[in-house]
Amino acid sequence: MVARHGGGICAILLGDSRADVLGDLQQRFPDAAMIEGDHQAMRLLHKVVALAESPKTTVELPLDMRGTAFQQRVWQALRNIPAGSTTTYADLARRIGAPRAARAVAQACAANHLAIVIPCHRVVRSDGALSGYRWGVERKRILLQREARA
């Protein structure tokens, strides 16, 4: 599901059912009004789907990334990780100049509303194991496999 605020995408949510995704959206944005069938939103949704299907494709999307200054730094660093690559929470913390903040980096990933375009799925544990993805470890595995094949 893609949600927008003004002209920018404020949420890209993944789920197993429409009810799951709607529940997630309502929890994250309790005061939001739901407008279905909006043509601009549908165009954005098609671009997000194209990006999910071809992860190495460049797709320009207007984003409304709301978060703390620290979260913004983490999310921007995540956007610089190429499709098909992974990093660790500790390495990402070092990249943003906060080498002791691996746990805070993980929390910033958990606060991410923009699945796929802020690729938190590219962050793995120090031992290389998959863990801690807001939309499920199995979905994280599938996204990484798709990127590796692209």
What's the topology here?
Elements: E1 2-5, E2 8-12, H1 18-28, H2 39-53, H3 69-79, E3 87-88, H4 89-95, H5 102-110, E4 123-124, H6 137-149
Parallel strand pairs: 3-4
Antiparallel strand pairs: 1-2
Helix pairs in contact: 4-5
Question: Can you walk me through this structure?
Answer:
The protein has 150 residues and is mainly alpha-helical. The protein is 44% helix and 9% strand. The chain has six helices and four strands. The chain has helices at residues 18-28, 39-53, 69-79, 89-95, 102-110, 137-149, and strands spanning 2-5, 8-12, 87-88, 123-124. The strands form two sheets. The protein has a two-stranded antiparallel ribbon. Strands 3-4 form a two-stranded parallel sheet. A hairpin with a 2-residue loop joins strand 1 (2-5) and strand 2. Helix 4 packs across helix 5. The protein is globular. The two termini are 23 Å apart. The mean pLDDT is 89.
